[in-house]
Amino acid sequence: MIGNLLRTALLHCLVATAAGIGATANAQTLALVGGSVYASPDAAPLAGAVVLTANGAIAALGSRSDVQIPSDARVIDCTGKTVVAGFWNSHVHFTQAVWRNAGSVPAAPLQEHMREMLTRWGFTTVWDIGSDGRDTLALRHRVNSGEVPGPDIYTAGSIFPRDGHPAYLPAEMKLPEASTPEEATQLTRTYIGFGLDGLKLFTGSFKGTGKPVVNMDPAIAKSAVDVAHAAGKPVFAHPQNMAGVDAVIAAGVDVMAHTVAGEPVYSPEQLAQFKQQGIALVPTLSLFAKLPVGPDIAARLVASTVSQLKAFSDNGGPVLFGTDVGFTSYYDTTLEYELMHRALSERQILASLTTNPAQYFKAAKKGRVEKGFDADLVVLEGDPLADVINFAKIAYTIRAGKVIYQRP
Ligand SMILES: [Zn+2]
C-alpha cells in the first residue's frame, strides 16, 4: 500500500517535472506559523503571526485566531524565527562559466550554483547588470518554468566607453564600446529590442593601478539614457571615480551601481543633484573590503565608501542592497550587512533589501508582507533588528509562494 502511494507520488513528480509546470502554477498553499513578522521596514513586529499564501500571493496575515489555515496547506513552523519580505539584490552577474549556454546545459549545476550564490541568502529578485543576455534570458526561462529554483531576474545590457575595457575583465572578452552618441543610441536600441530590462553604462572604467580611469563622455551617456528612458527602462552606471559620478548626473543615469572607493565623500553639489534627480545608490561595500590590496588599503577603501553611503542616505537618497556577486565569488552577505550598519540602521538596511528597490523599480506588489502582495518571503533564524547578521541567516526563501531554498 505504502509502496503504491510512493510510486504514485514519484510518478506525479516526474510528470510535473517533465511538463515543466511553472513556479506559480504549482505553488502550494503555505502557512508560515508562529514567527515574528515585520510587514515592512517601519512596522512594529507582529509576534506569533500566521502568513498564508495561495496561488503565489499573500492571502492573509494575522494572529493565529484571525487566520484560518486550510487543511491542505503546507505548515512551516516559524517559532523563534522572523518573517520579512523577499530580498532584492540589485547588483549581480550571471557571467561565470557555470551559466554559459544556460539554455541547453543540464539543470543540476545551475540549481546548485543558484542556491550557493543567491537563494540561500534570501534573494527573490535580482538585477543582473552586465552578462551575456542570451545566457541570462535562457536562465530566466528555466527559473520561471520551475526547473531551476531561483529569483525573479531582471537583466541589463552594458556599454563601455572607447578604450574602456576594464583591467579586471579578460582581454579577449569582446565588450560593446560606444565612441559616439549614435553608437550608444544604436546599442541601447539593440538591447531593448532583444528584450533586456535595463542598461548599464561604464561612466568610468578601471584600467589598472596607477593608470588613468577612462570616463564616458556625458553626451554619449546621455544619448543612451534618453533611448532607455523613452522605453521606460532604468539605467545603471559603474562610476569608478568622481568624474564618473559627474557623468551620472550630467547624463541622467538612475542608479549608481557602486560607491567610489578611495575617493572623497560626495560634494554638497553632487548630493543636491542626487536628490533633485532621484538617483539611487548600490553600495557594494564588501566588494571593496575583499579586494586583494592588503588590509590597510582595504580599510581605507571601506572607510571612504561607508562615508559616501552615510552622506547619500542622510541626504534622503534611496539605497538599494547589492553585492556584485557573480563578478565576486564572495557570496556570504554577512560582511555587507556589518559594513552597511556602520552607516545605516537595521530598518534602513531592511528597506534597502525590500521596499526601496520595489518602489524604485515600480514593482507594486513586492517589498512588503501584505495581503495581495507577491508571496516573496524570507524566514530568518533570528531578529535582524536585534542583530544585522541575522539578515544573512536564512531558514527559508520563498518566491511566489514556492520554497526555493530551505536550510538543510
Ligand atoms: Zn558588477
TrEMBL record:
Domain Amidohydrolase-related: 82-403
Keywords: Hydrolase, Signal
Alphabetical list of SUPFAM superfamilies matching this protein: Composite domain of metallo-dependent hydrolases, Metallo-dependent hydrolases
Cited InterPro entries: Amidohydro-rel, Metal-dep_hydrolase_composite, Metal_Hydrolase, Metallo-dep_Hydrolase
Signal peptide coordinates: 1-27
GO MF term list: hydrolase activity, acting on carbon-nitrogen (but not peptide) bonds
Pfam families in alphabetical order: Amidohydro_1
Designated name of the protein: Amidohydrolase family protein
Protein species of origin: Bradyrhizobium australiense
Taxonomic lineage: Bacteria, Pseudomonadati, Pseudomonadota, Alphaproteobacteria, Hyphomicrobiales
